[in-house]
Specification:
mainly beta, OB fold (Dihydrolipoamide Acetyltransferase, E2P), 8 strands, globular
Length: 139
């Protein structure tokens, strides 16, 4: 079996680059995706889902270099779940339950103009997106 998901959203904070003991680069991104609709009375409603995204290898270093809080990205990859394949659940300090949506990026595309911190060549097309290859992944 195989799955692939795609999200488009904005970074909620600056990327965090680290290295594994073997020297492999990994950057963690927090991406907010928002769904908007109108309820039966015409009032606008929003629902935001936060994604923890792990980007590996050369692409991790590129993301860390060019992205910042607020940058818009398109991320394609696979969802990481708990041992049963579900989102990880946790209990907050106030006793309510939450879920953590996590994914491993295969490809990250920068969608913000250069003036917002990512690459654009001025023609409306964006530079700087680096596709990860299977060799970049740690598994």
């Amino acid at each position: 079996m195989y799955h692939r998901i795609m999200i488009i959203g904005n970074l909620g904070r600056d990327p965090e680059l680290r290295y594994t003991p073997s020297g492999q680069a990994v950057t963690d991104l927090n991406v907010a995706t928002t769904e908007s609709w109108k309820d039966t009375e015409g009032a606008k409603k929003d629902r935001t889902i936060w994604w923890k995204v792990a980007v590996w290898g050369k692409q991790a270093e590129t993301c860390n270099q060019f992205l910042k809080k607020g940058s818009k990205v398109l991320v394609e990859g696979t969802m990481r779940g708990d041992e049963k394949g579900n989102p990880r659940t946790f209990q907050r300090q106030d006793g309510t339950w939450g879920a953590s949506y996590e994914m491993t990026a295969k490809d990250v595309r920068f969608m913000s103009p250069r003036s917002e911190g990512t690459g654009s060549n001025g023609s409306g097309e964006f530079e700087g997106a680096v596709a990860a290859t299977e060799d970049d992944l740690p598994f």
